[in-house]
Amino acid sequence: MSEMSKIVRTIANVSFPLITIFGLYVIAHGHLTPGGGFQGGAVVASGLIMLLVAYGSTWAFERIKEKRLTSLESLGAVWFIGVAFLGLFVSGIFFKNFLVGLKLFDNITFFGDIPVVGSTLANINTAGVLPLMNFAVGLKVIAGLFAVVLVMAYASSLKEWKK
Amino acid sequence: MSTRNIVAVLVFSIVALFFVFSALLIHPFGDPGAVKMDDHIITNTQSETGANNGVTSIVFDYRGFDTLGEATILFAAVASVMMVFRRLKK
Amino acid sequence: MIFNIPFIAVVAMIFIGLFAVLFKRNLIKIVLGISIIESGVNLFLITLGYREGGVAPIYTSAPSDAITNTPGSMVLPVPQALTLTSIVIGVAVLALMLSLVMHIYKQYGTLNVRKIRRLKE
Q1: pTM of the full predicted structure?
Q2: How many domains is chain B partitioned into structurally?
Q3: In which domain, by residue range, is C18 found?
Q4: Do residues C58 and B48 make contact, with C-beta atoms less than 8 angstroms apart?
């Protein structure tokens, strides 16, 4: 796939940071607003695919090695399982949400506040282990979807695949 | 009309009959029958998990094991696609 | 007016997908039919959990009459969580199916299902 014209490349350059910031906002506020790891990961991955379409897959495949993308995806999976095993080590239950109500120093909690039952205000310091798991799953989805589309786009443009 | 087409039309109409029959006999839209588990989850989400979002607390806390299985499926799919296109290294 | 119309829509989507899988000859159209069946099943899972006059099961900026009447005016959240998993599985299976279709096209040179069965290498 060859690259597209200069207008398309400029607009893709301008709108890629906005899409990435919106996707990271959806991932980070997964415990307060609708969204979470999978949804935000799909948004960021579609922003990356827009860049891939604008710049051409031959140009992109020479610069991005897909080994790094698959290792990023495995890092996301190991992080997710690591958080689950941490719950097993701190208290005796696999996948336990051990950060809820856990006070580290005097009044500082690491994602451990508990909201008043029935309140409609959003406090980002709540919900225990959930934001960490959101980031792990978001990283996994971003790296996985982008790697699949990159390899398929490059493979369909090689000479021996066209008859 | 070959025999393959006749068998396909027959199977299709039998499946169609079953589906339409059950779509009219299912519980009316907007009135689910068994709601005890979901009521417990909605009333206790903020005090047990500390999250405001009920769906995220189910996906990652009450049913976190299913999300682990889904992460495994994502990994298996990406590994399979990489394996199909492996001869790209020139 | 709403007399089980979403369930009839689910049945229509599954029919269209099943028709495409059974009666079409192009491989890409068969893959599209499988994707339509998956979308129909996801719609069925979500419409199982609707409560009359309910809002989303999220406490941030919820309307005040949904807070005072708490479990009675919020939609059931468990089918929505299961649909999320189902959508991600559908995407993964679709990626693998399309890469296998590309491999078949490279090997046989055609996408007609009747001819792929008859070319013996």
Answers
A1: 0.90
A2: 1
A3: 5-57+69-118
A4: no
